Amino acid sequence: MAEPFLPGPVLLLGAPGVGKGTQAQLLMADYGIPQISTGDILRDNIARGTDLGKAAKGLMDQGQLVSDEMVNEMVGARLAQPDVKRGYILDGYPRTIGQAEWLDAHLVSLEQSAGAVVLPLVAVNIRVDEQVLLRRITGRRICSQCKHIYNVYFKAPKREGICDIDGAPLQHRSDDTEAAFTERMKAYHALTAPVIEHYSKQGRFREVDGDRSVEAVTAAIELSLRQLRQVGL
Ligand code: AP5
How many other β-carbons are positioned within 10 Å of the β-carbon of residue 105? Predict the structure, then answer.
Protein backbone atom coordinates (compact mmCIF):
# COMPACT_ATOMS: atom_id res chain seq x y z
CA MET A 1 0.00 0.00 0.00
CA ALA A 2 1.27 3.52 -0.84
CA GLU A 3 2.56 5.60 2.07
CA PRO A 4 0.19 8.48 2.99
CA PHE A 5 1.44 11.88 1.79
CA LEU A 6 3.50 13.75 4.39
CA PRO A 7 4.30 17.38 3.62
CA GLY A 8 7.43 17.60 5.84
CA PRO A 9 8.32 20.98 7.37
CA VAL A 10 5.79 23.65 6.35
CA LEU A 11 5.69 27.41 7.01
CA LEU A 12 2.26 29.05 7.03
CA LEU A 13 2.75 32.76 6.38
CA GLY A 14 0.35 35.70 6.28
CA ALA A 15 -0.95 38.76 8.12
CA PRO A 16 -2.79 38.63 11.49
CA GLY A 17 -6.14 36.91 11.04
CA VAL A 18 -5.63 35.39 7.58
CA GLY A 19 -6.39 31.94 9.02
CA LYS A 20 -2.97 30.45 9.80
CA GLY A 21 -4.09 28.93 13.10
CA THR A 22 -7.40 27.65 11.69
CA GLN A 23 -5.61 26.01 8.76
CA ALA A 24 -2.73 24.67 10.86
CA GLN A 25 -5.24 22.86 13.13
CA LEU A 26 -6.83 21.22 10.08
CA LEU A 27 -3.51 20.28 8.45
CA MET A 28 -2.33 18.83 11.75
CA ALA A 29 -5.40 16.58 11.83
CA ASP A 30 -5.06 15.60 8.14
CA TYR A 31 -1.33 14.83 8.20
CA GLY A 32 -0.72 13.82 11.82
CA ILE A 33 2.14 16.30 12.28
CA PRO A 34 2.29 18.98 15.01
CA GLN A 35 1.38 22.65 14.73
CA ILE A 36 4.05 24.91 16.21
CA SER A 37 2.48 28.31 16.88
CA THR A 38 4.83 30.83 18.49
CA GLY A 39 1.79 32.90 19.51
CA ASP A 40 0.27 29.88 21.32
CA ILE A 41 3.57 29.04 23.05
CA LEU A 42 3.90 32.66 24.23
CA ARG A 43 0.27 32.75 25.46
CA ASP A 44 0.87 29.49 27.33
CA ASN A 45 3.92 31.08 29.00
CA ILE A 46 1.81 34.09 29.97
CA ALA A 47 -0.88 31.82 31.45
CA ARG A 48 1.77 29.94 33.48
CA GLY A 49 3.42 33.18 34.63
CA THR A 50 6.92 32.23 33.40
CA ASP A 51 9.70 34.84 32.97
CA LEU A 52 9.25 34.55 29.20
CA GLY A 53 5.51 35.14 29.58
CA LYS A 54 6.09 38.17 31.81
CA ALA A 55 8.54 39.67 29.29
CA ALA A 56 6.19 39.01 26.35
CA LYS A 57 2.79 40.07 27.72
CA GLY A 58 3.10 43.86 27.44
CA LEU A 59 4.53 43.68 23.93
CA MET A 60 1.84 41.27 22.72
CA ASP A 61 -1.01 43.34 24.18
CA GLN A 62 0.32 46.37 22.31
CA GLY A 63 0.61 44.43 19.05
CA GLN A 64 4.40 44.53 19.00
CA LEU A 65 6.74 41.65 18.28
CA VAL A 66 8.66 39.80 20.97
CA SER A 67 12.45 39.82 20.49
CA ASP A 68 14.04 37.49 17.94
CA GLU A 69 16.33 36.01 20.62
CA MET A 70 13.41 34.93 22.83
CA VAL A 71 11.38 33.49 19.99
CA ASN A 72 14.30 31.72 18.28
CA GLU A 73 15.27 30.04 21.54
CA MET A 74 11.67 28.90 22.03
CA VAL A 75 11.49 27.47 18.50
CA GLY A 76 14.90 25.78 18.85
CA ALA A 77 13.66 24.00 21.98
CA ARG A 78 10.40 22.95 20.27
CA LEU A 79 12.23 21.58 17.20
CA ALA A 80 14.31 19.38 19.50
CA GLN A 81 11.17 17.40 20.49
CA PRO A 82 10.82 13.95 18.89
CA ASP A 83 7.32 14.56 17.42
CA VAL A 84 8.69 16.86 14.68
CA LYS A 85 10.63 14.10 12.89
CA ARG A 86 7.94 13.46 10.26
CA GLY A 87 7.28 17.16 9.69
CA TYR A 88 5.58 20.11 11.35
CA ILE A 89 3.60 23.25 10.60
CA LEU A 90 5.17 26.51 11.75
CA ASP A 91 2.42 29.07 12.34
CA GLY A 92 3.40 32.70 13.03
CA TYR A 93 7.15 32.09 12.71
CA PRO A 94 9.47 33.34 11.24
CA ARG A 95 8.18 36.91 11.53
CA THR A 96 11.37 38.89 10.83
CA ILE A 97 14.31 38.45 8.47
CA GLY A 98 16.47 37.81 11.55
CA GLN A 99 14.19 34.90 12.54
CA ALA A 100 14.14 33.53 8.96
CA GLU A 101 17.93 33.59 8.72
CA TRP A 102 18.24 31.99 12.16
CA LEU A 103 15.77 29.24 11.18
CA ASP A 104 17.49 28.52 7.84
CA ALA A 105 20.86 28.16 9.61
CA HIS A 106 19.36 26.11 12.46
CA LEU A 107 17.81 23.61 10.02
CA VAL A 108 21.15 23.20 8.21
CA SER A 109 22.86 22.49 11.53
CA LEU A 110 20.14 20.01 12.55
CA GLU A 111 20.53 18.20 9.22
CA GLN A 112 24.31 18.05 9.63
CA SER A 113 24.10 16.75 13.17
CA ALA A 114 21.48 14.13 12.21
CA GLY A 115 23.69 13.01 9.27
CA ALA A 116 20.56 12.47 7.19
CA VAL A 117 18.80 14.29 4.39
CA VAL A 118 15.89 16.24 5.84
CA LEU A 119 13.14 17.57 3.55
CA PRO A 120 13.62 21.31 2.91
CA LEU A 121 11.09 23.81 4.21
CA VAL A 122 8.17 24.73 1.98
CA ALA A 123 6.20 27.94 2.53
CA VAL A 124 2.57 28.85 1.84
CA ASN A 125 1.45 32.47 2.11
CA ILE A 126 -2.27 33.06 2.80
CA ARG A 127 -3.60 36.35 1.39
CA VAL A 128 -6.74 38.21 2.63
CA ASP A 129 -7.75 41.90 2.25
CA GLU A 130 -7.04 44.07 5.28
CA GLN A 131 -10.71 45.21 5.69
CA VAL A 132 -11.78 41.56 6.07
CA LEU A 133 -9.03 40.93 8.62
CA LEU A 134 -10.32 43.44 11.15
CA ARG A 135 -13.67 41.59 11.46
CA ARG A 136 -11.90 38.27 11.68
CA ILE A 137 -9.71 39.56 14.51
CA THR A 138 -12.36 41.36 16.58
CA GLY A 139 -14.85 38.49 16.10
CA ARG A 140 -12.43 35.71 17.04
CA ARG A 141 -13.14 33.56 20.10
CA ILE A 142 -10.97 30.62 21.21
CA CYS A 143 -11.87 27.64 23.38
CA SER A 144 -10.11 27.95 26.74
CA GLN A 145 -9.53 24.18 26.79
CA CYS A 146 -9.11 22.65 23.32
CA LYS A 147 -8.10 25.94 21.59
CA HIS A 148 -10.58 25.44 18.76
CA ILE A 149 -11.03 28.76 16.89
CA TYR A 150 -14.45 30.37 16.34
CA ASN A 151 -15.70 33.69 14.99
CA VAL A 152 -18.87 35.47 16.07
CA TYR A 153 -19.39 36.78 12.50
CA PHE A 154 -18.14 33.90 10.33
CA LYS A 155 -18.09 30.72 12.42
CA ALA A 156 -20.19 31.12 15.53
CA PRO A 157 -20.47 28.35 18.14
CA LYS A 158 -23.92 26.73 18.53
CA ARG A 159 -24.25 28.23 22.04
CA GLU A 160 -22.88 31.73 22.54
CA GLY A 161 -19.58 31.74 24.42
CA ILE A 162 -19.39 27.92 24.70
CA CYS A 163 -17.17 25.52 22.72
CA ASP A 164 -19.13 23.05 20.54
CA ILE A 165 -16.48 20.39 21.09
CA ASP A 166 -15.96 20.27 24.87
CA GLY A 167 -18.44 22.76 26.38
CA ALA A 168 -15.63 24.93 27.82
CA PRO A 169 -15.97 28.74 27.86
CA LEU A 170 -14.63 30.69 24.88
CA GLN A 171 -12.05 33.45 25.38
CA HIS A 172 -11.33 36.73 23.59
CA ARG A 173 -7.59 37.34 23.08
CA SER A 174 -6.38 40.53 24.80
CA ASP A 175 -4.64 41.64 21.55
CA ASP A 176 -7.79 41.16 19.43
CA THR A 177 -8.79 44.83 19.72
CA GLU A 178 -8.91 47.33 16.87
CA ALA A 179 -6.03 49.35 18.40
CA ALA A 180 -3.74 46.32 18.79
CA PHE A 181 -4.71 45.08 15.32
CA THR A 182 -3.52 48.40 13.82
CA GLU A 183 -0.15 47.96 15.54
CA ARG A 184 0.07 44.29 14.49
CA MET A 185 -0.52 45.28 10.86
CA LYS A 186 2.22 47.93 11.11
CA ALA A 187 4.64 45.30 12.44
CA TYR A 188 3.49 42.93 9.71
CA HIS A 189 4.15 45.40 6.87
CA ALA A 190 7.49 46.60 8.27
CA LEU A 191 8.99 43.34 9.50
CA THR A 192 7.09 40.28 8.24
CA ALA A 193 6.34 41.16 4.60
CA PRO A 194 10.10 40.88 3.80
CA VAL A 195 10.02 37.30 5.13
CA ILE A 196 7.53 36.41 2.39
CA GLU A 197 9.91 37.85 -0.17
CA HIS A 198 12.78 35.86 1.42
CA TYR A 199 10.97 32.52 0.98
CA SER A 200 9.47 33.34 -2.42
CA LYS A 201 13.02 33.92 -3.71
CA GLN A 202 14.03 30.47 -2.47
CA GLY A 203 11.43 28.97 -4.85
CA ARG A 204 9.69 26.47 -2.54
CA PHE A 205 6.78 28.86 -2.12
CA ARG A 206 3.08 29.18 -3.06
CA GLU A 207 0.35 31.76 -2.37
CA VAL A 208 -3.32 30.97 -1.76
CA ASP A 209 -6.41 33.18 -1.60
CA GLY A 210 -7.61 33.00 2.02
CA ASP A 211 -10.87 34.90 1.44
CA ARG A 212 -12.92 31.79 0.73
CA SER A 213 -14.55 29.11 2.86
CA VAL A 214 -12.24 27.44 5.37
CA GLU A 215 -12.60 24.16 3.42
CA ALA A 216 -11.67 25.80 0.09
CA VAL A 217 -8.57 27.34 1.67
CA THR A 218 -7.52 23.99 3.15
CA ALA A 219 -7.93 22.33 -0.27
CA ALA A 220 -5.81 25.05 -1.91
CA ILE A 221 -3.07 24.70 0.70
CA GLU A 222 -3.03 20.91 0.41
CA LEU A 223 -2.79 21.15 -3.39
CA SER A 224 0.08 23.63 -3.02
CA LEU A 225 1.90 21.24 -0.67
CA ARG A 226 1.60 18.40 -3.18
CA GLN A 227 2.85 20.66 -5.95
CA LEU A 228 5.77 21.83 -3.82
CA ARG A 229 6.71 18.23 -2.97
CA GLN A 230 5.81 17.06 -6.50
CA VAL A 231 3.69 14.24 -5.13
CA GLY A 232 0.45 12.84 -6.56
CA LEU A 233 0.21 15.23 -9.52
P1 AP5 B 1 -0.01 35.16 16.78
O2 AP5 B 1 -0.77 34.41 17.78
O3 AP5 B 1 0.91 34.45 15.86
O4 AP5 B 1 -1.04 36.07 15.96
P5 AP5 B 1 -1.09 36.53 14.42
O6 AP5 B 1 0.02 36.16 13.53
O7 AP5 B 1 -1.37 37.97 14.55
O8 AP5 B 1 -2.13 35.67 13.83
P9 AP5 B 1 -3.50 35.39 14.43
O10 AP5 B 1 -3.40 34.28 15.46
O11 AP5 B 1 -4.11 36.68 14.89
O12 AP5 B 1 -4.33 34.96 13.15
P13 AP5 B 1 -4.35 33.63 12.30
O14 AP5 B 1 -3.77 33.92 10.96
O15 AP5 B 1 -3.80 32.46 13.05
O16 AP5 B 1 -5.91 33.52 12.12
P17 AP5 B 1 -6.99 32.49 12.77
O18 AP5 B 1 -6.87 31.16 12.13
O19 AP5 B 1 -6.99 32.54 14.25
O20 AP5 B 1 0.87 36.30 17.49
C21 AP5 B 1 0.35 37.11 18.50
C22 AP5 B 1 1.46 37.96 19.08
O23 AP5 B 1 2.49 37.11 19.64
C24 AP5 B 1 2.21 38.85 18.08
O25 AP5 B 1 1.55 40.08 17.85
C26 AP5 B 1 3.56 39.01 18.78
O27 AP5 B 1 3.47 39.94 19.84
C28 AP5 B 1 3.78 37.64 19.40
N29 AP5 B 1 4.48 36.71 18.49
C30 AP5 B 1 4.00 35.55 17.98
N31 AP5 B 1 4.91 34.98 17.18
C32 AP5 B 1 5.99 35.81 17.16
C33 AP5 B 1 7.23 35.78 16.48
N34 AP5 B 1 7.55 34.78 15.65
N35 AP5 B 1 8.10 36.81 16.69
C36 AP5 B 1 7.80 37.81 17.54
N37 AP5 B 1 6.63 37.91 18.19
C38 AP5 B 1 5.73 36.91 18.01
O39 AP5 B 1 -8.33 33.18 12.19
C40 AP5 B 1 -8.73 34.47 12.61
C41 AP5 B 1 -10.27 34.52 12.69
O42 AP5 B 1 -10.79 34.38 11.36
C43 AP5 B 1 -10.88 33.38 13.52
O44 AP5 B 1 -11.99 33.87 14.23
C45 AP5 B 1 -11.35 32.34 12.47
O46 AP5 B 1 -12.49 31.61 12.89
C47 AP5 B 1 -11.68 33.25 11.28
N48 AP5 B 1 -11.41 32.60 9.99
C49 AP5 B 1 -10.33 31.83 9.65
N50 AP5 B 1 -10.41 31.43 8.36
C51 AP5 B 1 -11.59 31.95 7.88
C52 AP5 B 1 -12.25 31.89 6.61
N53 AP5 B 1 -11.71 31.21 5.56
N54 AP5 B 1 -13.42 32.53 6.47
C55 AP5 B 1 -13.97 33.25 7.52
N56 AP5 B 1 -13.39 33.32 8.75
C57 AP5 B 1 -12.21 32.69 8.92
Answer: 10
